[in-house]
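Write out the 3D structure for:
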Amino acid sequence: MTQDDDMKRKQQGRSPPFPFISLDRAIQRTQELHDYSKGHAIRVQTAMTAWKYNPKSSGGLQTVGALKGYGLIVDIGIGDEKKIQISDLAKRLFMSPPEEIRLRLLAEAALKPKLINEYWHLWGAHRPPDSECRWQLIDKRGFTEDAAAKFLSVYDATVSFSGLRDEDDAISDEETDFSEIFQTEGDEQTPAPSPRGPNQIVKGNEAQKFADFNTSNLRQAVFPLSEGDVTLVFPGNLSAEGYEELGEYLQIFLRKAKREVKADTSKLNPFD
């Protein structure tokens, strides 16, 4: 959003758009929609019935906007045939994933709304006092007094519920892009070739070696480190969703390992 856009909104007495409900409430509404629709795509007017709103209610439309903002529902079709359906992100949340996966999904949803993402990177988990935040929102972004107070309420509740921490920014920036390690060719999932050719053993801290693993449908990826080789064994017929989940588990492992290393270092150097 440009400064000119902010100025126009301020002159017109309108605040920038943001979800009018917090993430925990949005997830509750998404669950209600899922239960009511039985997983099918339905019209917005029908969805409002699940939330006991009048089909033309502004609250119902705001609810739809909030759920879209958090990435919990998606549009299906166009024009008169346009419907809404819960997203893959919401479906994965409803599958009762392991706690660290759940927190990762919540963090992803929490930071999807543009304004929450923007001010998260500015304020973090421990934002400035209300008066300072209101001044930034009203003077710099054209919020009304009521909208500024509402945004702070939604921001605080969403950050708290999702478990976001200030260090999540740095962790996110350091996450490995697993799409560079694994590729998809048609319907078949295959490891990405090493710069020195497939299945060639690489010594030292150079590239990864990928090879078939015994006679079963397993593969292995060997990552040579200075401390020794790290071997990852995985099914050769992983789906795209399987590779995505594998990447998430590896990221969690790396986060935990990094925290343990930092903890050990702090014990050795308590005054650093």
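Residues 7-12, 170-216 have pLDDT under 50 and may be disordered.
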